[in-house]
Amino acid sequence: MTITETRPGADTGAADRPVLDVRDLVVSYESRHRRTEVVHGVSFTIKPGEVVALVGESGSGKSTTAQAIIGLLAENGRLEAGGITLGETELTGLTDKAMRDIRGRRIGLVPQDPNNSLNPVKTIGESLAEVLRVHRWGSKPAIRQRVLELLEHVGLDDPELRAGQYPHELSGGMKQRVLIASAIALDPEVIIADEPTSALDVTVQRRILDLIDGLRVEHNSAVLLVTHDLGVARERADRIVVMRHGRIVEAGRTTEVIANPREEYTATLLAEAAAVAAEVPPPRPVPKPTAEPPIRVSSLVQEFDTGRGRAPFRAVDQVSMTVAEGTTHAIVGESGSGKTSTVRALLGFHRPTSGLVKIAGLDVGALKTRKQVRELRRRAQLVLQNPYSSLDPRQRIADILAEPLLNYRLADRAGRRTLVTEYLDRVALPADTAQKLPRELSGGQRQRVAIARALIVQPRVVVLDEPVSALDVTVQAQILRLLTELQDELGLTYLFISHDLGVVGRISDTVSVMRRGRVVEAGWTHEVFTHPSTDYTRELLAAIPGRSTAPATTQGA
């Protein structure tokens, strides 16, 4: 499939010729001595200055396609058939040495996770300089000057300071800007952005996408945007290529695909993206008050010693909230807003500096014995963000679910087996899941196991720390629906932590918006979405992908 439309206002002639032409691409992986085809005859083109979004869920083949283009398939991966042309250069069949010369110089890559993509023992300046040295870009003084120019170009303040810092000293958004600087260091013809913002806060996500788009306009680079989020694709891409099970199921200009999806799968992705970006969540019924709410926090302060005689760092500053029985309260804010420190204080991971914290009838600040802390952990369970790291990879699912029952001595062996089966059924997983290992499950299935593990001890409160941020948009929707059903069935009270107001709008009754350790806005979620009282909340709402009424495909930063 080759698409030949031109963008409005684009020049004809050379501008119409693709800078990247992928033809009938077939990729396979070898596992357990069997080779399985995972990408089946994928074809698309990208022109100079154009953004093409490769969209699909995990396992759709989109990242594998991107890796094949840039010659970075895993060791067990193999390009079986097809062609890839960059300008006048045929990439298929090139030696590793020739592909290393292409990477960085003609194709730049912005990887997904900024926290794992920079060498932790090299300074930022050293990492950027290495890209230039590998391609023999210039002299040592020229490379140093280019590094500073690149850091400034991607919007990092004080380039001299940043060049001397290590990755752990930078925020996620800063690290992603460094990776973009690395990708554009040699003015490549094509930039491959592989889920470049999935690990970032929604406002930082918008700034990073604005930056990539501005650089595209400035250098007339083609951009292949790999994403699971049709909301992002809608706002940023000229054309959309939808993949499923290793095949292209739909492709076309963004406006046409959004307005008239031909395939049911595309329509489902669009519906889920639209639901997350809903303008205003519907009002929810007002809960009946109870004598002792399951969560009550008053004037919470959490400080941390910074050492060397300095004043302590105040991570949480006079935070208060009350959560009614059977409702969901969300705490929302960017990284560094104090969300995590608040949760850790609520769950007794560290003692509050001052203030009152009562969870499920227990005064957290007054807990003294290990037995009291254990009882808090049983009454208030935690579901973590990443389903790929929160389950022991060596244990079967049955053992993972039975472990908390064993720890709290809540059932004998036969009772544990019965409860494991019951709670797998509650989270809509088949009974044979019990005998599987985590690596045999998808991300959504693993998160269902994590939810079952939290619920199996029958807690009164469940704290959900970014429980869907690592999942595709359709799987997000499934997990959010499951959480709502379980809440209605079991009368649970949720504390939902998120940086994404789009997700918050789908599940929460009430919300606290945090910034720099303080609650800057709080109330019914419907009211906050309808009439935000602070510029910060308005910025978070505006940054929800797909929230605008029309795609903004060609605007710069």
Portion of residues in beta strands equals 15-25%
CATH class categorisation of the domain at 295-542: Alpha Beta
What is the CATH topology of the domain at 295-542? Rossmann fold
Through-space gap between termini: 32 Å
Characterize the overall form. globular
Mean pLDDT: 87
Count the E strands.
20
**What structural class do you assign from the helix and strand content?**
alpha/beta
Total number of helices: 19
The poorly predicted ranges are 1-12, 548-557
Percentage of residues in helical conformation: 25-40%
Look at the structure and name the CATH superfamily of the domain at 295-542.
P-loop containing nucleotide triphosphate hydrolases
In the CATH hierarchy, the architecture of the domain at 295-542 is: 3-Layer(aba) Sandwich
Strand order of the largest sheet: 6-7-8-3-9-10
Largest sheet geometry: 6 strands, mixed
| Rg computed from alpha carbons, rounded to a whole number of angstroms | 25 Å
